[in-house]
Amino acid sequence: DQVLHIVPETFQQVQHLQLLCSTFMLDLWKPLLPEDIRAGEDLHLRIPASLVQEVKDSLDQHMISYRVLIPDVQKLVDQSMPRKRSSHRQVSGDYVYTEYHPMEEIYQWMTQIQQKYSELVTQHFLGKTFENRTMYYLQISQPSNKSKKIIWMDCGIHAREWISPAFCQWFVKEILQNYKTDPKISRFLQNLDLYVLPVLNIDGYIYSWEEDRLWRKNRSPYENGTCYGTDLNRNFNSSWGSVGVSFNCSSIIFCGSGPESEPETRAVAQFIKSKKSDILCYLTIHSYGQLILTPYGSTTEPPSNNEELMQVAKEAAAALTGKYGTSYRVGSTALILYSNSGSSRDWAHTIGIPLSYTFELRDTGTHGFVLPANQIQPTCEETM
Amino acid sequence: ELPPSHFSAARAAAVAVGYLRYLRGGPGRGLELRELRRARRQDISDVGHKYYLELELEDVSDKDRTVNCTAEVLYHLGNKTSAPDVQVTVQGELRSTEEADKQFYNWIRSLEKELVAENIPDSHGNVPPELEPIHLLAWVASGYVIWQNSTENTKFHLAQVKHVKQVKRSDEDLQFDFVVLLHEMVSQEVLPWEVTLLWHPQRGARVSQ
């Protein structure tokens, strides 16, 4: 298909062009309607490939001059498709943090970021997913002779919440790129170790790229392979199965066949249990909603350190809003959202981790799970 | 009086926004909720629960301006099959979309082949600019569905437009057959819904049954 640029000179030419448009039902790009064609004004006309020669002949016959504006419309359309992924673009210095990345690239990124900042970062095996993929976490730890408390952060427990893994990657990058120059970060690292799990639900994340963008659960099969997926954030051992869940595999909040029935859940729980006396803060990142949620989901009964939890959360929300004005609400899941049981955040708190939070990142429903990539940067900057 | 962050207030606000989008939305106007400022609940015996809301909204095409409105949402007792009664009062005038509406209308009417599109936005959140009016009409259509199907135990948002097909008509209305994916926050389910929307620049939108 081609697009021609024509400037009709006489009224007769205008009439002929109008005739051409209606006879061949041509796609007029400018002006909008044939009746708006005027002598002396620009005309842009798209002609299907099969008619190009015939139309040009007719224009020549009537002494109407034209030039080809777009010689191949399809090529232009193809070129303007976003995300031309070039596979050579995998040096960590060139990693594009303002785009969403498939799991393969995230795996590569972990390797490279560890190599680049090997004095601080180590990559560790956490466990395996149902589909046998390896779960890795990154440990950011400044060598020192004193033992340090730990802050754990996991992203991507729900497959469709793409902004969450994007944030974990951004977070790691920010810390590593700035730890030498930013006094806040360097002081942080003197006293604390950061453990980051960029994608918890790897199988689900891959499935949301390849099959169903709005998938949420993991990919373990139930009922003889006729039904897939447990909601990993209902699968932890905190009032498991009591409220806000389904025991039916086909439900999107299916809590699994028992607490920690899923390999992903076990991998995380086992590790956190083993380190629990050193873990100061458990963070789990989700979207959407713009919320900082405190325990619990299964009851409105406040946790023992509720005042401290709320104060820290409120200060965090205020700092977040200070960046771009994005407003976040703070409170317990049971009061702000709905009742649920088996969440990782509730479980972390019940085993003794004092500060335990769920972050629900942007937005509040306008784009929901399908947050445009151009919001990755502001979302991550404000959340930092 | 309810804290605006309480889930029941947020759910009622979502219904009010859905209703308002149906009533006042169009290819050139998409309203979204910026903040729920105040919420009150009244339990009316033998009738239902009524929420009084003060909402702060913005027009996606004119984000610097604030649109204030008040809304009343009445959920009927027991009767789960009837839609909540909603009344919304917008303070001040909404920005006129007459020009944009006319341009959109003419563009669609001039298409030789009926418009068809899928996955708006795409997986990465992108909407091609020429499809933004269709996207906003999907907000109108889904606004109706959300209003009609909400209860005190649901909170719906439009997750994605799965499919849209224009259907040419012999009268002057534009017709779009949508398949929208609605995300229900409480159950976390994503539910596909077929909805046909008729729209005309002067007459506005209506969902065809």
UniProtKB/TrEMBL annotation, chain A:
This is Carboxypeptidase O. It is a lipid-anchor; GPI-anchor. It comes from the Eukaryota. SMART domains: Zn_pept. InterPro entries: CARBOXYPEPT_ZN_1, M14A-like_propep, M14A_act_pep, Peptidase_M14. Its cofactor is Zn(2+). GO terms for cellular component: apical plasma membrane; extracellular space; side of membrane. The gene is Cpo. Keywords: Carboxypeptidase, Cell membrane, Disulfide bond, Glycoprotein, GPI-anchor, Hydrolase, Lipoprotein, Membrane, Metal-binding, Metalloprotease, Protease, Signal, Zinc. The keyword Secreted does not apply. It is found in: Apical cell membrane. The lineage of its organism: Eukaryota, Metazoa, Chordata, Craniata, Vertebrata. Carboxypeptidase which preferentially cleaves C-terminal acidic residues from peptides and proteins. Can also cleave C-terminal hydrophobic amino acids, with a preference for small residues over large residues.
Automatic annotation (TrEMBL), chain B:
This is LXN protein. InterPro entries: CYSTATIN_LXN (IPR049897), Cystatin_sf (IPR046350), Latexin (IPR009684). GO terms for cellular component: extracellular space. Residues 1-99, 116-209 form the Cystatin LXN-type domain. Belongs to the protease inhibitor I47 (latexin) family. GO terms for molecular function: metalloendopeptidase inhibitor activity. Keywords: Protease inhibitor, Repeat.
